[in-house]
Amino acid sequence: MRLNEKIIRYIYIITFTFLTLTGFAQMPIFKRYHIADIPGLGWLAQFYITHAMHYIFAVILIGLSTYICVDYILNKPQGYTITSRVYAKSIIILGLIITGGLMVFKNLSGTPYSPFMISLLDLSHLTLCMALLFYFILLLGRSVRFY
Ligand code: HEM
Q1: Ligand 1 atom index nearest CA of 16
Q2: pLDDT band at 145 (very low <50, low <70, confident <90, very high)
Q3: How many separate domains does the chain show?
Q4: How confident is the model at residue 3 (pLDDT cuts 50, 70, 90)?
Q5: pTM of the prediction?
Q6: Which residue, among 24, 46, 23, has the nearest Cα to 36 in the 3D structure?
Q7: Are 123 and 139 within one domain?
Q8: Does 45 lie in the same domain as 19?
């Protein structure tokens, strides 16, 4: 694997890990189940810290995804075709970015979302997160190329 692919892979894994951790920290579970009582993990119960971190890693994920798409368009290896696995993961990540972006908009004051729309966005984002977690666990240990 080329050096920059290795770097991208590590940035992706770190970003995904923190997006999942800070995403679940949007729900009051780490305090309720005393995980935040473990020394060094108290920040997981600080909503504003985890909320800001979720946004920061969301920006990194959007940046990384854009880089990978542009790199693929400009430097597509000869004879390479996108596999169904990569399609599946790309659709899940795109879904997370779209639902996440709409929820960022929701958090701006005065946005006209109905309670149904808010629940739909939340549940879609959470379902996509679980789908990506499942995908990750399923393929753990197999080296997946980004394109
Ligand atoms: C791998 C990618 C991501 C994962 C695994 C993830 C995971 C999560 C989870 C588990 C939640 C909590 C849902 C709930 O409260 O029911 C959440 C909330 C949220 N996520 Fe993500 N997320 C990801 C990417 C993004 C991106 C790219 C954005 C923005 C563009 C984003 C924006 C948000 C927002 C705004 C919330 C709601 C916070 C609130 O108002 O309570 N997420 N995320």
Answers
A1: 1
A2: very low
A3: 2
A4: low
A5: 0.88
A6: 46
A7: yes
A8: yes
The residue range of the domain holding 120 is 81-147
Show Cβ contacts of residue 12 under 8 Å, excluding neighbours closer than 6 positions: 64, 146
> How many residues can be counted in the chain?
147
| Residue of 136, 96, 134, 129 lying closest to 25 (CA atoms) | 129
Amino acid identity of residue 99, one-letter, is T
Most confident of the following: 9-13, 29-33, 62-66, 79-83: 62-66
Number of C-beta neighbours around residue 53 at 10 A: 19
Q: Is the CB of 61 under 6 A from ligand 1?
A: yes
Angle between helices 3-24 and 47-75 (to 10 degrees): 150
Residues 102 and 131 in one domain: yes
Q: Residues 92, 138: contact at Cβ < 8 Å?
A: no
* Token reading at 55: 């946004």
Pocket test for ligand 1, best of 11, 17, 48, 103 (most atoms within 8 A of CB): 103
